[in-house]
Amino acid sequence: MRNFVNLNVNPCNMCMPMGAAGVFKGIEHCMVLMHGSQGCSTYIRRHMATHYNEPIDIASSSLNEKGTVYGGSANLKKALKNVIKLYRPRVVGITTTCLAETIGEDLGGIINEFFAEEKIKGIDCLAVSSPGYGGSQYKGHYYTARKTVEHFVKNGGKSPKVNVIVGSMSPGDIRHLKEILSLFDIAYTLFPDISETLDGGCQEYYNRMPEGGTPISALKEMGKAAATLEIGAMVADEDSPGLYLKEAYGIPLYRLPLPIGLQNTDALMEALAGISGRGVPMKIRKERARYLDAMIDAHKYNAEGRVGIFGDPELIYAATSICLENCFTPCVVASGPANGKILPALDSLGSSFNRDFIKLADTDFETISKHVQDTGVNLLIGPSDGAFMTEKFGIPLVRTGFPVHDRMGAQRKVVIGYTGSMQLLDELTNILLDQKHQTFRANLHKAYWR
Amino acid sequence: MSKVLNINVLDERRNSILCNARGKGDSIQCNKNSAAGSVSQRACVYCGARVVLNPITDAYHIVHGPIGCSSYTWDIRGSLTSGAEVYRNSFSTDLREKDIIFGGEKKLSAAIDEIVAQYKPKVIFVYSTCVVGIIGDDLDAVCKTAQQKHNIRVIPVRSTGFAGNKASGYRAACDAIMELIGNEERPAKPQGINFLGDFNLAGELWIIKGYLKSLGIKLHTAITGDSTCDSLKEAVKAQLNIVQCTGSMHYLARKMQEKFDIPFINVSFCGVEDTVKSLLNLANAIGDECIVKKAKEFVVEKASRTEKLLEQYRQRLAGKKVAIYVGGGFKAISLIKQFADLGMKTVIVGTQTGREEEYQTIKELADEGTIILDDSNPFELEAFIKEKQADILVGGVKERPLAYKLCVAFLDHNHERKHPLSGFEGALNFAQETDLSVNSPVWGLVKRKWGETDEKLCQSEC
Fold first, then answer.
1. CA distance B438 to chain A (A)
2. Residue A427: how many CA atoms within 13 Å on its side-chain side?
3. What does the angle CA B252 – CA B253 – CA B259 come to, to the nearest 5 degrees?
4. For the segment A192-223, what is each residue's pLDDT rounded down to a tens digit?
5. What is the distance in angstroms between the Cα of B63 and the nearest Cα belonging to chain A?
6. Any CB–CB contact under 8 A between A97 and chain B?
7. Which of B350, B358, B376, B331 minimizes the C-alpha distance to B34?
8. Pairing mode, strands B371-374 and B17-19
């Protein structure tokens, strides 16, 4: 679904190892190792460093010609040894790359050999098959989360805890989600948890293996949970960690969209109320009431918004939802990653508000920007890569999702829940107000002064 | 080899770390593949080629590979253009699983057809990536066929990611440039110069171009900052090449000398001292009395004005300690001098791709006890920054958060910067940025503390 058949012009997605790295960064004391050539880890580190403003240590097995021709086993073992020496991790998360996948590396075999040869104990190691050509960062995220769960969870059983599986969200959003869970007094295992590992404070001493992340002990117990709440409504079934837990251990699964906007946040609160067996806490009810108030205050201004939305499937679904609820007109809604569920979901969302708009999946920015121009978009929502449309066409961009390279605070920005939605809504409305205030005098003068 | 380390540094890294000691013939291990698992700050062959060729503003750069290679390099460098903006796009054949199985040649040739039909380009560069190198797509053949079919230049860039390191990518790019220049005819009496290895980050090329104009020196071709496909072919008309980024362009300079008999000299426009010296050297190399005279007057006037303005910063920066970790050796050398000029002391200096002779120069320039690193990593940088109690780190995007986590100031000497660091104007920006970061009140408020657990790493006193 793009202008060129054989070309992607200005990508609106990244590759699988990026998503895999993001998940591993959310496991306690986990070091990430990419099996492939040096560039993959460097580029991904650079992208994550500008978004999170944190040191991003990701090792590479630095495969060269020799390793490529004769197999990368020696490089991978050396890399494991070095990473363990330098970082003393509890887990090493290995992602494959195009290179390792194509030469057909037997990762499981190499890892087993390594641990037998080196007699290393107390370190867990898991490898995920994530070739860059196998899918986007979106698929890489959930697929890796699923493989991690499959790796750690060995037993079913009974526990009052709830599994909360999240997609690519900001550390700030995850902290907010944890607050919400606490208000419901729910015991939970949140995975992957980047709330501390990718947004640490300034400490007295720097810790290169930051504290935080989902504890390994908690990961192992996920098969015993009372329920799984998975934020990832567009995830393919075979990539869903929650579905795996349901099928393997009979754990009830709630699959929910990213809680941005009223209905999506309501869905989360209803699920939590159901799981906890108690009502929605007063604090959250008040937040909802304030958000409704904000929606009413701004609805007329928002009606002048013509929006272009792009990014990964979860983000664009939720962003379209908050726009429709608030009288904005979505004009173009585009998923960079290929995804089987997003277009029907957008169809049904649009028709519930009697709105139709251009929907794209597996697309690129060249295609998106053409539609953005054709449909008279005056507001953009998505990651930083869309900023060239601001530069070229003067359309403001509200940066959400990943990556955000050119603004401070992406790692702590909160857009979920009633409070986050309200902040996002205010930001959107204020841009429209600003546009109006900047132009109405000149426009009216031009139109009516005689 | 002087004994340097007590820390848990990786065995295969020991010979790449040196504590500078005078009068010793120590050499540093460099220009080797990165140690697996060392968390090297380097990139790949493709990256090397991409950064060199990308600033050719009207070329179509097709990345033949999976989406990541194209996505992570889309418009991330601050190379400015005076005209075409084609280079700011990222074209990719976006290879998928089935292309890997059945081969990507057909897709590539169809992609070239599509670009030609839509944009009528003069030149297309086609970059090879890791996976293309493995599945064995014949880039040369596809490009050759397309070139004949469309009667435009379609040039393969042999930048398969794993086939060497970033420096191999520089060479692949230089080979592509040589191919573009082809057999252009050299005039009987060549005049003027080419400027190799400036990528017009934040308009730096334009600053130097202004100087050359003042001196009456004609600049034929900048390689590759703000260049065009046509301007690159003009390169044969020059009597002299000046080479700034030697890491990437020394190879091209040599090739041009072999093929076209164009001599070259190295230059650096980092800092007042190097800028002055480079302009005078250039004038002398051209050998025109009038230009030499003009150059002398020009540098005296510019330098004295800049010196006056720098004085305020010197007072605020004197005695501060610097850690340098940059891409190339030549830049590191310039930086040591530039900081020394501001009264600052370099305590750590490292590069990703420095060459043997450059490290020799670094050793001569740096004080005893300075830590010298090749292809370093966050673990070592952290350890040595603490050990040496550096006040500021100079580096690229990935290094910045590390410095800040250690509560150390930072100077962006990267490819994304929005202000020039070249020439006299750049020297002032450099001092200003250093001052803004080192002397920020924030460091007083966060109360920098160094780990107590670290043993003394370097046995040689500073």
1. 17
2. 18
3. 85
4. 999 999 999 998 888 999 999 999 999 999 99
5. 10
6. yes
7. B376
8. antiparallel
Burial class of residue B34 in the structure, from the number of CB atoms within 10 Å of its CB (0-12 exposed, 13-18 middle, 19+ buried): buried
Distance between CA A7 and CA A289 in Å, rounded?
48
Residues of A in contact with B402 (CB under 8 A): 55
By the 8 A CB rule, do B233 and B260 touch?
no
Q: Do B110 and A5 touch (CB under 8 A)?
A: yes
CB distance B390 to B382 below 8 Å: no
Give first-to-last CA distance, chain B, whole Å. Answer: 17
Out of B37, B134, B405, name the one closest to residue A99 (CB).
B134
pTM of the model: 0.96
The nearest alpha carbon in chain B to A104 belongs to B134
Q: How confident is the model at residue B5 (pLDDT cuts 50, 70, 90)?
A: low
The answer to whether residues B10 and B39 touch, using CB atoms and an 8 Å cutoff, is: no
In this structure, what token pair is assigned to residue A258?
Answer: 């990213």
Sort out which chain B residues have CB atoms less than 8 A from A205's CB and list them. Answer: 449, 451
Positive or negative CA dihedral for B290, B293, B296, B302? negative
- Residue A86 near chain B (CB below 8 Å): yes
Put simply, the chain A residues between 337 and 366 with a CB less than 8 A from any chain B CB are: 366
- Using a CB–CB cutoff of 8 Å, tell me whether A401 touches chain B: no
Whether residue B441 is preceded by a cis peptide bond, meaning omega within 30 degrees of 0, is: no
Residues of chain A positioned with their CB less than 8 A from the CB of B407: 202
Query: Does B34 sit within 8 Å of A62, measured CB to CB?
Result: yes
* CB contact at 8 A, A142 and A241: yes
Q: Inspect the interface and report whether the beta carbons of A13 and B402 lie closer than 8 Å.
A: no
Alpha carbon distances (Å) from B271 to B200, B331, B410: 17, 11, 18
Query: How far B76 CA sits from the closest chain A CA (Å)?
Result: 10
DSSP class of residue A131?
-
Cα angle: B383, vertex B389, B392; to 5 degrees: 100
> For B10, which of A10, A63, A82 is closest by C-beta distance?
A82
Q: Encode pLDDT of A417-436 as tens digits.
A: 999 999 999 999 999 999 99
CA–CA dist A378, A351 (Å, integer): 22
Query: C-alpha dihedral over A35, B354, B340, B320, to 10 degrees?
Result: 20
Chain A residues with CB under 8 Å of B400 CB are 49
Distance (Å, rounded) from C-alpha B70 to C-alpha A361? 19
Of the listed ranges A95-99, B28-32, B225-229, B397-401, the least confidently predicted one is B28-32
Q: Which positions in chain B touch A2 (Cβ < 8 Å)?
A: none
Nearest to B198 by CA among B301, B321, B77: B77
Q: Of B43, B74, B91, which has the smallest distance from its Cβ to A42's Cβ?
A: B43
Backbone φ/ψ region at B455: left (φ over 0), alpha (ψ -120 to 50), beta: beta
Structure letter (DSSP) for residue B56: B
Residues of chain B positioned with their CB less than 8 A from the CB of A403: none
CA angle at A283 for the pair A281 and A289, rounded to the nearest 5°? 105
Closest Cβ–Cβ partner in B33, B134, B405 for A64: B33
Q: Taking CB atoms and an 8 Å limit, are A133 and B96 in contact across chains?
A: yes
DSSP class of B366:
S
**Number of helices (H) and strands (E), helices first, in chain B?**
18, 14
Yes or no, beta carbons of A11 and B67 under 8 Å apart: yes
In the numeric block, the tokens 């929910």 are attached to: A256
Yes or no: say if A388 and B89 are a contact pair by the CB < 8 Å rule.
no
pLDDT in tens, B275-320: 999 999 999 999 999 999 999 999 999 999 999 999 999 999 999 9
Interface predicted TM-score of the whole assembly (ipTM), two decimals: 0.95
